[in-house]
Specification:
By secondary structure, this protein is mostly beta strands. It contains no helices and 38 strands. It folds into 2 domains: 7-17 and 367-447, Immunoglobulin-like, CATH 2.60.40; 23-358, Methylamine Dehydrogenase, Chain H, CATH 2.130.10.
Length: 449
Amino acid sequence: MKKAQFLFIAFVLLIFSGAQAQFHWQVDHSYFEGNTYYSFDAISSFGNTCTVAGNIYDTVAKQLTHVFWRSTDAGVSWKLQDAGLPHVNYTKFERHLFEGIQQIDSLTAVAVGDSGLIVRTTDGGNSWEKQDCQNTSGIYEVNFSDKQNGILLAGWTIYTTFNGGKQWTKAPFTTNNIYSCYAHQGEGGFSVFKIPHGPIYTSKDNWNTVDSTSRFLDSLPDGSKYFFNYCNFTGGDTIIVYQEYIGIGGAIMRSTNFGKTWENPIITQGVTAIDYMTDIIRDTIIATGRGDVGNKILISTNRGASWRTDSIILDIPYNSIRAKGLTFTSNGSCIASFSNNHIKNLSLDSSILIHSKPVNEKVEWFGVVYYNQRIFPIPAMKTLSIANVEDAMPFSMIDILGRVVISGVLPSRNSLDLDVSMLPRGVYYVLVDNGKRGKVIIGKALLIY
């Protein structure tokens, strides 16, 4: 077989902020295989150990099975674990989803979900124990400060435990519209957040006495348009509330003194509603949720002070419209689950499981310069043109990791206009197979938008 020879056309996609795609994403598990569909509903990690709670759907038998996937190498490989729970016959009128999970340490994890579901493992998922808080409402949030002390939310009701969930006790404090909870270090210390503008309620004695912050955004003329459904408590005195500025985009607001004062809210682009955020114990934070276009995440490299939009480029055709889970491992990898449905489907909410690595690689190309192809204009605005003075030949546009983002055929002795407005910012190359020469760089271009 004749070896193909290639020609490289290099160009740079640049914006004044200098932002570019930061993560290399890989699909770990597809959303279906034949008549079987997969749903990865909740994700959490401790160190490089990660557990994903989800469902396997048999679309012929109309049954689902609650299962777990476990990785001990930051998402590189996964092991399927059976929770030992009974099969469920699902219909379009019922929900049977995991809503939350916490990987407390490398061996201990607890997951919660619809209809009062609580399950816990202390041996790395080899066995799972079902627990009961005497509430059949959906449990959508759980958090432990250690293996013994934890809090969960069932409806608007707060439950706490001091023995690892063997016994859950209803808190004496009640309020409505609470959606995020947190267990502080030390027995009896807990916080909850009331949507959409606070306050944050905190107790140091298991809700016998309660302190609260003030509501925020009441003084802003457009304050009612901000809807904060979640609060990230994982950063000590630094906390972040997030979800959306209604009808415009995602919204994020940060406090560095546990809610006494707040920085100005940030409206984000690309993610229209933010539903998930990694822990804020490090400078780099990732957030994502829902978007009209899909395949977008938000990245902060200064612990939430500012944010930028980045794109997820997958190795399969999939429009990741809605996130279902997100976590950071200690080695810097991000693990996430995305669905291609705009809203939660009550009968079957399938999704993909992906993980990333930070892009640290440097790519160098060298060779003599030829002028049989030309890229223009310089700078380019959303459209990049390639002029070809040779015969028609196939081309591929690739990123610095070698992934194809655009491909086609250059016309014979003519030019081709490419819409590059949807590509993430960064360094790209045009690979042309002309069957004559080796790899050379023939030009550079700037794309500013």
